Amino acid sequence: MKRIELVRSGSGGCVPAAGAARLGLFFTLSLLLGGCATFSETFSPVEQKLAAQQPEHALQLLEKRRYPRRDEVLFLLNKGMLLRMARGYEASNQAFEAAKQRINELYGASITEQAASFLINDGTRSFVGAEFEQVLLHLYMALNYLEMRQLDQARVEALQVDIRLREIAEHVPESVYTEDAFARYLTGMIYEERGEWSDAMIAYRKAYQAYTKYRDRFGTDIPVFLKYDLLRLSERMGLTQELARYKREFAISQWQDVTSLRRQGELIFMLHNGLAPIKREQSAMAVNPASGRLIRVSLPYYQPRQQPVVRARLIVGGDHVQTQVAEDITGIAIKSLEAKMPAITARAVARAVLKEGIAREAGEEHVVAGLMVNLINVMTERADTRSWATLPGNIHFARLPLPPGNYAVKVELLGSGDAVLATRELSNITIRAGEKSYYSYHWIPSRL
Fold it and tell me: Strand 319-322 and strand 420-431: pairing?
């Protein structure tokens, strides 16, 4: 479809009611709810502060903006992520918890809201997030708890991930996103640290199955770390046949057993790389030759961002390990939206037909009123470009067993051909016997 830009209109002025109450309501809703700038356009200043590595300033900009009630969840998700980037984990989870409660309140949206979205545009509905965004909300809450060393609370979020994924599979059968491999994997690590071997093994199996689907849908392969986890837990639980199958499939004959691993500690490093794709709008506008009125249809699409970092390398003394992609959020977002496009397109076309009918009816009563309604129809036909914009483009991770102690860790961000793009020194990383120490690094390129 051809992309066009609209000239921003002023907010003042009155629109004649064309003598009909329903047209007056239509004018009012259109002016109040339609809007011209898309969400992705208005969010750009916040992203620029992130590109300058200034999450605190980005948060200040976010909180200065005024959000309608329908975008409260969107505000809270972005606030929670910006607080997390600034290492305010407790405050981050408070924002995330508020977002979670609001999402629960919004399930079963009102009839009035649904009618307004059909009459005006999809952006007039309250934002609850795509399915993958709702699951990642629980995942990031769990990560916050883990970085605060609150394992029990992280386990609660892991359980909620399982509940939400089962709800998606049951109620959204057309979704390409019915499992989250990294969320399952993180759940397994939580259970393993707690010594809940059976639950850990179940979670690792589900992660393995989900990564098998990820490989086909999103191009994300099974991390080698998970392969060793499956071997270690199969051995620990005496699953002889399953162990033999993994050894053949992975071509791995040696691994660290549970006993020796628990005598050590483990660094779990995560690189939250870049920013998620931008949700933008593409529009097509034409003149109906039969009526002479303008018709506009606007649809959303994701524009991927450049991700110059392809992996990270951790160097601890004489040991080093490279990260692998655990979650391709860009790929998940694009594929999830593609699966919904038939329904989104059908609504947009039906809305265009309805709007033209309203303009025709207004024109029969008064020519000027008909022209005004047609203009409002064009102005208010906008795609819903709202998304959790502060999510990373992808998540990399690595697991590194280490003897108990305090460590300085050098992190190298590697680009194409393993060229070092940036380095960071992590000091005073504490490793405790039998425990996993989680550390996250949010990196956003200076050029978005």
Answer: unpaired
Residue in the structure block whose two tokens are 């990564």: 211
Backbone phi, psi, residue 6, to 5°: -105, 150
Per-state percent for the chain, helix, strand, coil, to nearest 5: 55, 20, 30
pTM of this structure: 0.87
Rounded distance between C-alpha atoms, residue 260 and residue 235, angstroms? 13
How far from 268 is each of 81, 238, 265, CA to CA, in Å? 20, 26, 10
Q: Of how many residues is the chain composed? A: 448
Structure tokens, 138: 């629980």
| 146 CB-near residues (< 8 Å, 6+ apart) | 154, 190, 268, 436, 438
The rounded distance, in Å, linking the Cα atoms of 341 and 338 is 5
pLDDT tens-digit series, residues 373-425 = 777 777 778 899 999 999 999 999 999 999 999 999 999 999 999 999 999 99
What is Dmax (Cα atoms) for the chain?
84
Report how far residue 105's alpha carbon sits from residue 387's, in angstroms, rounded to the nearest whole number: 19
